[in-house]
Design a protein that fits this description.
alpha/beta; Rossmann fold; four-stranded parallel β-sheet; 11 helices; pyridoxal phosphate
């Protein structure tokens, strides 16, 4: 995969990019926070495929730009800052109409690539996982998890770890994506949905929130296994799985697959409080 568009981000963008090309759009418009992997990947994809990109960013502009937004601008993305009240309307046809009136013909990709195109792409993440009983993944919008649930067999199950505080609301979002996808006639690997559950106890305070314990775990995991984890998503999921293993949550003999969804660019864009935490750890 290309370093700009990797992990689950490529799978969520793939069919959105194909549809935009088929419909002769030259501009992509999408939504995200200031540290969004999706914003980063969309900007990179736009540069690679010769498409103009517009990123509607939640919150006010803060200078200097963090590494995520700085990269996006370097790839030609136009950043539009949006107050949080307006941003909550990002799924509405009214706001979409306003944006199209302002920026012309744009192909709109939802925040995080969370649409049926995104789900379709995510059904291709695990083309063959016959040797595993349980597949674990971090969860932000539920799109990746929905795609994985569609690709597993009825003998397998999926576990998602929401990185948002009070993430149980994602269950209804995931159910809605699955129902819409199954009704759409789009390709489904197994023509069914395997069992899935959310474990909401490992958010560490919410989106992009981290603490000493999570940072220490991530650093030790990297040192031990040679696998870097991003602090926003995969570190929380890996931590959760390791903790559940110690608690005896899984049955003896269960074969687990942990999906690393990329997003390592986010480690460069942590806020200053996180950097201070890491500095304290290094001083110990």
């Amino acid at each position: 995969m290309h370093p700009w568009v990797n992990g689950n981000k490529w799978f969520k963008l793939k069919y959105n990019l194909l549809e935009a090309e088929e419909k002769n759009f030259s501009q992509l418009l999408t939504f995200g926070g200031a540290y969004s992997n999706h914003i980063f990947a969309t900007a990179g994809a736009g540069k690679l495929f010769g498409l103009q990109t517009i990123g509607v960013i939640r919150g006010e502009e803060r200078l200097p730009l963090n590494p995520t937004l700085s990269f996006a601008v370097q790839q030609g993305m136009q950043l539009v800052y949006c107050d949080r009240t307006t941003y909550r309307q990002r799924h509405t046809t009214e706001l979409h109409a306003q944006l199209k009136e302002r920026y012309g013909e744009v192909f709109i990709i939802p925040e995080g690539g969370s649409n049926l195109n995104g789900v379709r792409g995510c059904t291709e993440i695990l083309p063959e996982v016959g040797d595993f009983d349980i597949v674990c993944v971090a969860c932000g919008t539920g799109t990746t998890f929905a795609g994985i649930l569609l690709s597993l067999t009825h003998k397998q199950r999926g576990i998602a770890f929401p990185i948002l505080k009070n993430g149980s609301f994602l269950q209804s979002e995931i159910d809605s994506l699955l129902q819409s996808y199954l009704a759409s006639g789009l390709p489904t690997p197994n023509n069914s949905v395997c069992t899935g559950e959310l474990i909401c106890d490992y958010h560490f305070g919410g989106y992009a929130k981290i603490n000493d314990e999570l940072l220490k775990f991530s650093q030790q995991f990297h040192q031990t296994h040679g696998i870097p984890l991003d602090y926003v998503y995969t570190a929380k999921m890996f931590y959760g799985v390791m903790d559940l293993l110690q608690q005896g949550f899984f049955s003896k003999g269960d074969r687990l697959l942990l999906v690393h969804t990329g997003g390592l660019q986010g480690n460069l864009a942590r806020d200053q409080s996180a950097l201070r935490i890491e500095q304290r750890l290094q001083e110990r």
